[in-house]
Amino acid sequence: MPALRTAAVAVGIAALLWLRLDSGLVVAERAAPLVSLSLGALGVLFGVGAWAMRVGGYPERAPLLLGLAIGVAGYALVRLLPF
Fold first, then answer.
1. Cα separations (Å) of 39 from 59, 69, 83?
2. Which of 7, 26, 39, 58, CA to CA, is 20 to 30 A from 13?
3. Could you tell me which of 10, 2, 78, 5 has the C-alpha nearest to residue 40?
4. Would you say 27 and 20 are in contact if contact means Cβ atoms under 8 Å apart?
5. Is pTM beyond 0.90 here?
6. How many Cβ atoms from other residues are within 10 Å of residue 33's Cβ?
7. What does the pLDDT look like over 42-83, one tens digit per residue?
8. How many Å apart are CA 5 and CA 9, to the nearest integer?
């Protein structure tokens, strides 16, 4: 169950980031490539937060933060690919 919740959060976050930053549906121009660095750093912070929740005694919060980390960092990596 936690794996399903993690995957759902990751897919949802990646979809929202695509919609807002790169789809052209919300804003006419795409976000600058430099945004990927900020997203990557944010993904690392969410990953550290997931680890801290796991070892700090709040394992029920870890799947949410891990999903955020995967969604944000994964989207940052995909944005770097030359499409």
1. 24, 9, 18
2. 58
3. 78
4. yes
5. no
6. 9
7. 999 999 999 999 999 999 999 999 999 999 999 999 988 876
8. 6
- Between 27 and 51, where is the model more confident? 51
Q: Rounded to whole angstroms, how far apart are CA atoms 61 and 23?
A: 31
Q: What DSSP letter does each residue of 26-79 carry, written as one string?
A: SSSSPPPTTHHHHHHHHHHHHHHHHHHHHHTT-TTTHHHHHHHHHHHHHHHHHH
Domain residues for 59? 2-80
The half-sphere exposure of 77 on its side-chain side, counting CA atoms within 13 A, is 8
Q: Is 24 helix (H, G, I), strand (E, B) or coil?
A: coil
Rg (CA), the chain: 14
pLDDT of 35 > 90? The answer is no
**Cα distance between residue 64 and residue 66, in whole Å:** 5
Query: Number of structural domains, the chain?
Result: 1
